[in-house]
Amino acid sequence: MSHEGTLPVSKQNMTIFGGVKSQGRLNRKKTAVMAFGVLFMAGCARDAPQDTWQPKGENASNINTLQWIVFPLAGVVGVAVFALIGFVLWRYRDKGQAIPHQSHGNPAVEITLTIIPALILSVVGVFTFRGIFQLAQTNDTQMVINVTGQQWWWEYDYPAQVVNGVEISQPIITAGQLVIPTDTKVLLRETSRDVIHSYWIPALNGKKDAVPGRINLLRLQAYKPGIYAGQCTEFCGLSHANMRMEAVALEPADFATWVANQQRNAQQPAQASLAQEGEGVFLNQCIRCHQVNGLKKADGTAAIAAPDENVYSGAAPNLTHLMSRNTFAGAAFDLVTSDCRKNIWTASPEQFGAAYLEGVSPKCLNQTNLRRWLRNAPEMKPMYADPTKLASSDGKYRGMPNLNLSESDIDKLVAYLSTLK
Ligand SMILES: [Cu+2]
To answer: Ligand 1 centroid to 243 CA: how many Å?
Structure first.
């Protein structure tokens, strides 16, 4: 540029530092390219289970269609605006030139710059409104499940109803894994027992907050059998990061099998078995929080849990069919070994149902995780900011306490819990 001759000092500086500068620029360029590469590859990872760009159900597909319209449009506008700003900054940078002629108002430019964004926004608006109405639709619901969040796990209760000809005659209560039939419009009625949580299975739909005292609706529907992972997306306290959930979609026939099993009471363990001793320990230590349907006390009367008297949120997972789910404690830990987990997660849609319905066989039981949990649950999943203060001021526990069980009691409990199919 011509001004260089008039600014010998800066020109000199550039020459002196030229080599250093260009090297620095090269490194920065390399770093930028690498950062972009990493981000790009992360975005393209095909096995990312919580990728919102890989919808596996109708609602998520509607969201995906919308983002494919909005993202490119916004992207083009964003790039154009920044390019223009860059150009103007560079082209009209201060070179000591005189201040240009000052003018005010240019109707042609102003009208153009109003009409173009208005057109873009109305296109985006049409699709957004269409999306909002699609996602809010509930009048064609085929199934209802009540979903309750608490620190730090989700409870599901299936009211009595008929789904695709399958009768749920007794309400089903389960935790962590939400089991639904494929190709069925499932309506979740969400609420919370303590703080605000948020339910999100990215492959099936967007997020919806679970708020105490309110019921929020969220529709899920899965095209194919499989497990769809999610996590609580509203910060809810110490173990928020350990509050996960999974939606499990089964073919309608497999779903009917699952329902039939969930409606059964727990079987009684064999006489004089280790599991029967475990049942005794359970009655002493666990029944005050955890319900096992059909479990009887020594005197033959029904054993009824009272989590409302023992837990801050007033609830603890129903363990009647613990071994029918393959993760536990807010879907944060595997109840199956890593080999068995792989078999279930990578099963083809045709084979998935059978693999899931097998439940946790003794061969697949992740003894390490279950024993660690029974030995000291808060050590595995933090529940108290101050570990010396285990209960809240009203004497109720926040989450599962450390019960200081002996190793022999843990052996018995593992044997008993294994029978809860
Ligand atoms: Cu939460």
So the answer is: 6
Q: How far is the CA of 354 from the centre of ligand 1 (A)?
A: 31
Task: Tell me the average pLDDT of the chain.
Answer: 89
Alpha-carbon span 379 to 372, nearest angstrom:
9
3-state secondary structure of 2: helix
Environment of ion ligand 1 (residues, CB < 5 A):
197, 232, 236, 243
What does the pLDDT read at residue 335?
Answer: 97
Read off the pLDDT of residues 239-258 as tens digits, 9 standing for 90 and up. 999 999 999 999 999 999 99
Which residue segments constitute the domains of the chain, with CATH numbers given? 45-136 (1.10.287.90), 142-421 (2.60.40.420)
Using the mean position of ligand 1's atoms as its centre, give its distance from the Cα of residue 91 in Å. 51
Give the integer Cα–Cα distance in Å for 176 and 204: 16
Distance from the CA of 312 to the center of ligand 1, in angstroms?
A: 15
Q: Are strands 172-175 and 226-231 parallel, antiparallel or unpaired?
A: unpaired
Instruction: For residue 212, give both structure tokens.
Output: 């105490």
110-141 pLDDT, tens per residue?
Answer: 999 999 999 999 999 999 999 999 999 999 99
